[in-house]
Design a protein that fits this description.
Elements (H helix, E strand, L loop, with lengths): L1 E9 L2 E7 L4 E6 L7 H9 L15 E9 L2 H13 L9 E9 L5 E4 L2 E2 L2 H11 E4 L10 H12 L2 H26 L5 H16 L4 H15 L1 H16 L4 H18 L4 H27 L4 H20 L4 H19 L1 H47 L6 E8 L11 E8 L7 E2 L6 H14 L8 E5 L7 H14 L4 E5 L3 H4 L4 E9 L4 E7 L4 H12 L5 H11 L1
Parallel strand pairs: 3-13, 3-14, 8-12, 12-13
Antiparallel strand pairs: 1-2, 1-4, 4-5, 5-6, 6-7, 9-10, 10-11, 14-15
Helix pairs in contact: 4-13, 5-13, 6-12, 7-11, 8-10, 9-10, 13-14, 14-15, 17-18
């Protein structure tokens, strides 16, 4: 759910910070007050394209920030999507979005503190919010989404999961067959070349430890002569006629004699003897190291050839060990298929045919459940549409088979929700309904019935009450309130019957003078008198006693 929203310099709004709670929230105000500005901010956070014209006149920067909280189940979905988009996951179920537009700078988007693209913001928006109002491209207009909702309503989740696993394997087999058919048959020279290349790679141990040892051995061999020369030079400085050992012997004799004359020099004599012992140890170590750089010709050839082969393979195949391993796998597959092309094709075709039988079986089960589910859904939606003011409306779900023997990710058929608002009018897809108010009420009916299987956390309704009133208006409010038991719902409304049922109520007010116009949005659900006055205004007159009494009845 949306927890917190901060807006600065959006259209006529200078600055705003609001906290939100779960459930049903309404936005009301005078006609032309700018009630949709709150929805405009959510639109921008959901990835809608924008331009500098939205920045408040006289300001240089528009910014919107929001905090969302997702419970455990939803958090798993949103985290999986964030990881897929290469963005930071939520911390304890909390997601932070921010977006800014500048007059002179490039716009900036951040998701959980990381810079993001508009495309990433839009992909995320498709998960957390769904708009229903004028000009909105709702998810429910998409046939694929309609089919997924029908499957959820029909209890097809397990069958669909089994089907989709088989479908992915079926597609993989198809790609392999296409690759084999499109690959040219290799001649003997090509086969020999591939075999030689494969042997070169196989002779090398490409494990991390083996490559590290090869690098150390090669470095040691390459530098062996210089290292031995330097070691012998060091030994000469220690053991030569005038070397350190000779000088230390003289020093020890002198200090030994000195300590017999004055025992206060005894410790200095001991220190000099310690130096002599240390130099003896160092000499033995250096002598041992000289021999460690002695390599026989065979070892030198083996290490040098391996390093040469490794460098050659890196140059050929992209410069990394992973690329070499990838090429090795590709060569092995190519050689294995060349060995028995017809046998490989026959095996893949048999396996694919077995999967097709499984796909057909599960596609029929999906279709059977969809038929049953669609009838129940149509009956429930039609009944609710009648309550929402559609006296002669017709709602239908069409399942259309794909081309014979063709499969998709969702089976062997497509799904389309159809609607006709009036008697004598033909059924049309939802996105072809002319009236935005009609569209919103149809969406409300569908969302109400499908609330338990639609996992979109936030729903927004604008003009859902267009051309309705009285009892129908109260029904509209009741159905929105019912949806808010499982979703956070925002609704811009002109109907007091709807507004009175909301848990949270936000009032939009526009103030103007000769030089300035500003919009404010304030929560009034905590102020009984302000809310009573607003409901009375929506009924016709905030100062009318009868309107105030009616408003009180609606709020009770």
């Amino acid at each position: 759910m949306l927890q917190y929203l901060k807006i600065e310099n959006l259209a006529l709004l200078k600055s705003l910070s609001l906290d939100f709670d779960q459930g049903f929230s309404v936005v009301t105000g005078e006609t032309g007050a700018g009630k949709s500005i709150l929805l405009g901010a959510l639109n921008l956070l959901s990835g809608t394209r924008s331009n500098q014209s939205l920045i408040r006149e006289g300001a240089v920067r528009l910014s919107i920030e929001a905090s969302f909280f997702f419970p455990d189940t939803q958090a798993k979905f949103v985290d999986a999507l964030l990881i897929k988009l290469d963005l930071p996951a939520c911390e304890e179920g909390t997601m932070i979005l921010s977006r800014s537009l500048d007059q002179s700078k490039q716009s900036k988007i951040k998701i959980n503190g990381a810079l993001a693209t508009l495309s990433q913001l839009k992909s995320l928006g498709e998960f957390w919010i769904d708009f229903h109002g004028p000009g909105e491209s709702q998810k429910l207009f998409k046939e694929s989404y309609q089919l997924s909702l029908l499957d959820a309503f029909s209890g097809n989740q397990d069958i669909l999961k089994t089907y989709q696993l088989a479908y992915q394997k079926w597609k993989d087999f198809g790609r392999k067959l296409q690759h084999i058919h499109s690959s040219e048959q290799l001649d003997s020279d090509d086969m020999r070349f591939l075999s030689n290349e494969l042997n070169k790679i196989q002779e090398l141990d490409l494990s991390e430890s083996a490559l590290e040892k090869l690098d150390l051995d090669y470095t040691k061999i390459s530098q062996s002569q210089e290292c031995q020369s330097t070691l012998r030079c060091c030994l000469g400085l220690i053991s030569g006629e005038s070397g350190l050992m000779h000088q230390l012997n003289i020093l020890n004799q002198k200090l030994d004699h000195l300590s017999t004359l004055d025992n206060s020099h005894y410790q200095r004599m001991e220190r000099a003897r310690s130096l002599q012992i240390e130099i003896d140890d160092l000499t033995r170590e250096l002598e041992s190291e000289v021999s460690s750089y002695d390599f026989d010709t065979e070892t030198i050839d083996i290490v040098t050839n391996k390093m040469s082969t490794l460098q050659e393979l890196k140059r050929k195949y992209g410069g990394s060990i992973e690329r070499i391993k990838s090429e090795k796998k590709a060569m092995e597959e190519k050689l294995s298929t060349q060995g028995d092309v017809s046998g490989s094709i026959e095996k893949l075709e048999n396996e694919r045919a077995e999967l097709e039988q499984s796909l057909i079986k599960n596609a029929k089960l999906l279709h059977k459940n969809r038929l049953v589910g669609s009838k129940v859904l149509v009956d429930q939606v039609s009944e609710l549409l009648l309550k929402l003011g559609f006296k002669k409306a017709e709602f239908s779900i069409e399942l259309k088979s794909l081309t014979e023997n063709k499969f998709s990710e969702f089976g062997q058929e497509t799904c389309q929700f159809l609607f006709s608002p009036n008697a004598g009018q033909g059924l049309l897809p939802l996105n072809k309904i002319a009236s935005s108010g009609e569209t919103a009420r149809v969406m409300l009916a569908l969302k109400t019935i499908l609330a338990d299987v639609d996992h979109t956390p936030i729903l927004v309704f604008d003009e859902v009450d267009a051309n309705v009133g009285g009892e129908v208006g109260r029904t509209v409010g009741a159905e929105i309130s019912r949806i808010s038991n499982s979703h956070q719902v925002f609704c811009v409304t002109h109907l007091p019957q709807v507004a009175s049922l909301a848990k949270q109520h936000y009032l939009v007010d526009k103030k103007q003078d000769d030089s300035n116009t500003e919009i404010s949005i304030i929560p009034i659900h905590g102020n009984e008198q302000m809310r009573l006055g607003e409901i009375a205004r929506m009924l016709g007159d905030r100062s009318s006693k009868s309107a105030l009494e009616h408003a009180k009845e609606l709020l009770d």
